[in-house]
Write a structure and sequence with these properties.
Chain lengths: ~350, ~350
């Protein structure tokens, strides 16, 4: 028989497209051409530019100037073991680099070969990705490297004639985070009971409500509940509420026809099992007050890997759905004063 | 000094064990801590006028995780509740302001962080500037290390000074039953360790911690009903600097801490004890200088955030520890500091006083 799941790995990934606004559009459009620029505001050149003067909040204007490609390192640190977040995979430095022609620093990578090469005041020079790989993002600069010639950058401080309509106005990013959640004690009890084809709950000793799927607490009285509060509950109940969903075909959506998701109040309990599916019945026939019973997945095929710590009352892949028992419905008005 | 109905005090404090990996969910951690803080002043959940918490969905990896956490308050009948996506210290600030409205006389501020589900050292890369820093993977360790390097290059401290901060905090933590990391550490042995991010070694970084805390606040006469020696909040101020650390004139100074300290009245009288939220060892030195504290102030008797650092809770714990020094240890005037954002971007300073 399958076992409970003590840890679940969750990979949170989502794409994001940001609009850049006029200042950053101008900067990233120039960067894709291999030119780093800053903006003159408040008597100094900020590079990379911001659309506001961070000291005053005033619009920083459009007086763009060329900066770099060489600059001078002030603060730095060494990354001996780069992670998946970092854009180069060999050991490298992060550094404050004040580009020639700028009055503020830019934080970027310095690919210096070894930690011992890093020192304040060192001269570095930007290296760019090949033109056809640039997308108008800060990592179009691969890294700074020690400058072959420490002499000032030619043209630094000269005006940059920005096009009226910048070519690049948005930026794609991709969020990729990994979580490892450990299953809490009440959820482990729930997983175990589902694998055994049994439903359980916890009964609060203060309000006497029975919560289906142990939660370890009563959310009404704010008291902790433990194994001594476990009760068996029946795998039959009444639909208290439902919605009919017309599926949109996003990745992972297996349904093709409108389907119902129901809240089911098990007989003798006080908290519903939410988001339950109904078998062998068109969605249009699902009713509040209808008696249903769980349809269990064969024991050898039961699986609880999709049940997380917050999936209270989720049947996981142990209950395939609920089926009308044929009993006469309860009056709908009996369920009107429930939240779910 | 005579207190008025406009004076707000900390009257109760509770914190969970601080551990590397809790087997509980945030809600399960929070419930006994919130309820024990309330019980410690002889109240029950239904007596509380306002409840506010600080936590972060990105830490636990669950959208709207703070909604589940409301179950820890027993929110039926419905309660007056709020949430900040910040350290619980900022939740306390909101509770303080809420109490000043004068229509309620008690509030609870909580903070909860199940940090172990994710890796905070990489997670907070997405907290950085989304255009200029996140795409190059500017992780929080690297950001702090560049600040540390600038601090060393300014000549104001040495790596030995950093190790001394670590050794003292971990030694102090021996008497803190909630500490995660404590003990006697030889400074030369600490300095023999490899760099994680030059010039920071493993011991200069905060531990990863699961934990939570809750503080009960009361207004005016109610504070005396609930606590023999309330810790009155006589000043609280919060200041923010530019998000990009490179836009600050001098990263070796904390201008926002100095402004918040002035606003909170730190310099008006001596401070007996200061609880400083410095996630990285050297930041304690920067904050201490900005607060204008001299050698007469005891720093972090709890061991600070080098002993336990549940992100979203550490600042609130500083407030609870500083208040405990007044409520239980008879201290006269203490200070709590909280920080947020890269390289000490945001700083909150709270001054607490006991009656003469």
């Amino acid at each position: 028989m399958p076992d409970v799941v003590h840890e679940s790995v969750f990979n949170l990934q989502f794409p994001f497209t940001r609009t850049l606004g006029s200042t950053l559009s101008t900067f990233f459009s120039a960067l894709a051409q291999g030119q780093i620029i800053g903006v003159r505001t408040g008597g100094r050149v900020i590079a990379p530019p911001l659309e506001y003067d961070p000291d005053t909040g005033a619009d920083s204007g459009t007086e763009y100037v060329k900066v770099g490609p060489k600059g001078t390192v002030s603060a730095w640190t060494w990354v001996p073991e780069p992670t998946h977040l970092h854009t180069i995979k060999n050991p490298f430095a992060f550094a404050f680099v004040t580009l020639d022609g700028a009055d503020t620093a830019m934080i970027h990578l310095v690919d210096a070969g070894s930690e011992s090469a890093m020192k304040p005041g060192m001269r570095v020079e930007a290296t760019f990705k090949p033109v056809d790989e640039r997308v108008g993002r800060i990592d179009d600069i691969l890294a700074f490297v020690p400058a072959a010639d420490p002499a000032p950058s030619a043209g630094a401080g000269d005006p940059w004639d920005a096009p009226a309509e910048p070519e690049i106005t948005t930026q794609d990013s991709f969020c990729d985070l990994v979580y490892v959640d450990n299953t809490s004690a009440p959820t482990l009890l729930w997983m175990e009971s589902l694998l055994n084809g049994k439903l359980i709950g916890q009964k609060c000793p203060v309000c006497n409500r029975t919560f289906v799927g142990p939660r370890g607490l009563c959310c009404i009285d704010a008291v902790e509940l433990d194994e001594s509060h476990l009760v068996d509950v029946p795998d039959r109940g009444v639909i208290t509420n439902f919605t009919v969903i017309t599926p949109v075909q996003y990745p992972g959506q297996l349904e093709t026809e409108p389907f119902a998701r129901c809240s089911i109040l098990l007989d003798g309990t006080d908290a519903v099992m939410a988001q339950q599916s109904i078998l062998d019945m068109p969605a249009s026939e699902v009713r509040v007050g209808m008696h249903v019973a769980a349809v269990w997945v064969p024991e050898a095929e039961r699986d609880v890997s999709e049940i997380g710590n917050r999936g209270w009352g989720s049947g996981g892949d142990c209950i395939s759905g609920w089926r009308h028992t044929g009993q006469p419905d309860e009056p709908e008005e009996n369920y009107l004063e429930r939240m779910m | 000094m005579t207190r008025t109905e406009n004076d707000i005090a900390i009257v109760g404090f509770s914190q969970s064990p601080m551990v590397r990996r809790s087997q509980k969910t945030e809600t399960e951690m929070l419930l006994p801590v919130v309820q024990s803080a309330i019980a410690s002043v002889g109240l029950t959940k239904n007596d509380i006028g306002f409840t506010v918490s600080g936590s972060c969905d990105y830490l636990s990896g669950q959208a709207f995780s703070f909604v589940s956490n409301v179950d820890a308050y027993g929110a039926w009948p419905p309660i007056n509740e709020s949430h900040v996506e910040m350290d619980g210290a900022w939740a306390l600030y909101e509770a303080f302001v809420r109490l000043l409205q004068g229509d309620i006389d008690t509030a609870v501020a909580a903070g909860v962080g199940k940090n172990s589900n994710s890796d905070p050292s990489t997670l907070f890369t997405i907290e950085m500037d989304p255009y200029y820093l996140t795409p190059i993977g500017a992780d929080p360790w690297s950001m702090a290390a560049m600040q540390a390097r600038a601090y060393l290059d300014s000549g104001k401290a040495t790596e030995r000074d950093f190790a001394e901060v670590v050794s003292r905090n971990r030694s102090n933590a021996k008497s803190n039953p909630h500490a995660q990391v404590s003990g006697d550490f030889d400074i030369d042995e600490l300095l023999a360790a490899d760099y994680i991010r030059n010039p920071l070694r493993r011991h200069d970084l905060p531990p990863t911690t699961d934990g939570c805390a809750a503080i009960v606040l009361a207004r005016g006469k109610k504070a005396y009903d609930l606590c023999e020696r309330p810790a009155w909040i006589t000043g609280i101020d919060h200041r923010i600097e530019a998000h990009l650390p490179t836009m600050r004139a001098d990263i070796t100074k904390s201008v926002s801490t100095a402004l918040a300290a002035k606003g909170a009245g730190v310099g008006n009288a001596p401070i007996d004890v200061a609880e400083i939220y410095a996630p990285f060892s050297f930041q304690e030195l920067i904050v201490r200088e900005a607060l204008g504290l001299d050698a007469s102030t005891e720093i972090n008797p709890s061991g600070g955030s080098l002993a336990a650092n549940p992100v979203m809770v550490s600042g609130l714990i500083r407030m609870g520890e500083a208040a405990t020094q007044i409520m239980k240890n008879g201290k006269r005037r203490t200070l709590a500091h909280a920080t947020s954002g890269p390289c000490l971007q945001q700083n909150l300073v709270c001054v607490l006083e006991g009656d003469e």
